[in-house]
Design a protein that fits this description.
Number of strands: 8
Number of domains: 2
Strand order of the largest sheet: 3-2-4-1-7-8
Largest sheet: 6 strands, parallel
Number of helices: 11
Oligomer: single chain
Helix content: 40-55%
Strand content: 5-15%
CATH superfamily of the largest domain: P-loop containing nucleotide triphosphate hydrolases
Structural class: alpha/beta
Radius of gyration: 22 Å
CATH topology of the largest domain: Rossmann fold
Shape: globular
Length: 305
């Protein structure tokens, strides 16, 4: 099959952390002539390996993995930036006739890659942040102006009225004077030229939590704490973005003498459980997913209607 001229397939594997997405993707790649494309905001960063669950070389079985270790700790990861890198990887895979298999841990990145990015994300973010600040000030009692009035002022700053109930980004933020709903429709650039098949891993909660706990212990046994110590001793600022990742912030606190290792382990496991729950909530909204039971390779044995 000549994937350069046909409409090629693209496999997307979604699921909560510790559900075995990587092992399933590698097996599919081995059987179908594919390569893995990581879709995880934490795995983009070089040096942060154990705690981000990057598959070790021995776990990759010779299958090429893309979009891992592409950013330095001082660089900012964004959904828009990820999409550009993913499109470049897809173009390369298509040219070489290889099947892309995405392993998705960050649902937002997957959504932006498949459905596109709005033309004015910075305006939306600024407006949302400003509204949130206004509400917070009202709750804390640090502002006498009503929340509604503040939001109206913010809307006038960021948006231009085009009709009674329709607004567009203002000239100070954007040159286009179109209704916001129209910009939402026209600003998206969904992925084209691929037939997307989505596979979701949905293990039961208790086995998933047990696996999260066991994986945390295994990561520490592999030298996770030593990895964090090496990063700090290499001169990486303690406030670098990747140190906000689950586990890295707790182990940094251990090395700084703020908490004990036992407390850090408990906090890591709790935060990871909560993260897995949030992931599943997000992924359940993803359309047209074929859900599978179990973990990783075992998920191929049973399917959920």
């Amino acid at each position: 099959m000549n994937l350069e001229h046909a409409t090629p397939p693209l496999v997307v594997v979604i699921g909560p952390t510790a559900s075995g997405k990587s092992s399933l993707a590698v097996r599919l790649a081995e059987q179908l002539g594919g390569e893995v494309v990581a879709c995880d905001s934490t795995q983009l960063y070089r040096g942060f390996d154990i705690g981000t669950a990057k598959p070790a070389p021995s776990e990759r079985h010779g299958i090429p993995h893309h979009l891992i270790d592409v950013l330095g700790p001082e660089e900012a990861a964004t959904a828009g930036g990820y999409r550009q890198m993913a499109l470049a990887a897809l173009a390369d895979l298509r040219k070489r006739g290889r099947l892309p298999i995405f392993t998705v841990g960050t649902g937002l990145y997957c959504a932006r890659c498949l459905r596109g990015w709005l033309t004015f994300p910075s305006v939306q973010k600024s407006f949302a942040n400003a509204c949130a600040l206004a509400r917070a000030r009202m709750v804390l009692g640090t502002c006498t102006t009503s929340c509604g009035v503040l939001i109206l002022r913010l809307r006038r700053k960021f948006l231009l009225p085009t009709s009674k109930n329709s607004f567009a980004p203002s000239r100070s933020a954007l040159s286009q004077k179109k209704p916001l709903t129209e910009l939402h429709r026209s600003g998206r650039a969904p992925l084209q030229g691929w037939r997307v098949l989505k596979i979701g891993l949905a293990p039961d909660r208790e086995p998933l939590y047990a696996r999260i706990h066991a994986r945390t212990d295994a990561m520490l046994a592999r030298g996770w704490l030593e990895e964090v110590r090496s990063l700090l001793e290499a001169g990486l600022p303690a406030d670098a973005k990747p140190f906000d990742f689950i586990g890295y912030r707790e182990l940094r606190a251990v090395l700084q003498g703020h908490i004990t290792l036992d407390d850090a382990i408990a906090a890591i496991q709790q935060s990871t459980r909560r993260y897995a729950k949030r992931q599943l909530t997000w992924f359940r909204r993803e359309p047209a997913v074929h859900w599978l039971e179990g973990f990783g390779d075992d998920a191929l044995l049973q399917s959920r209607p």
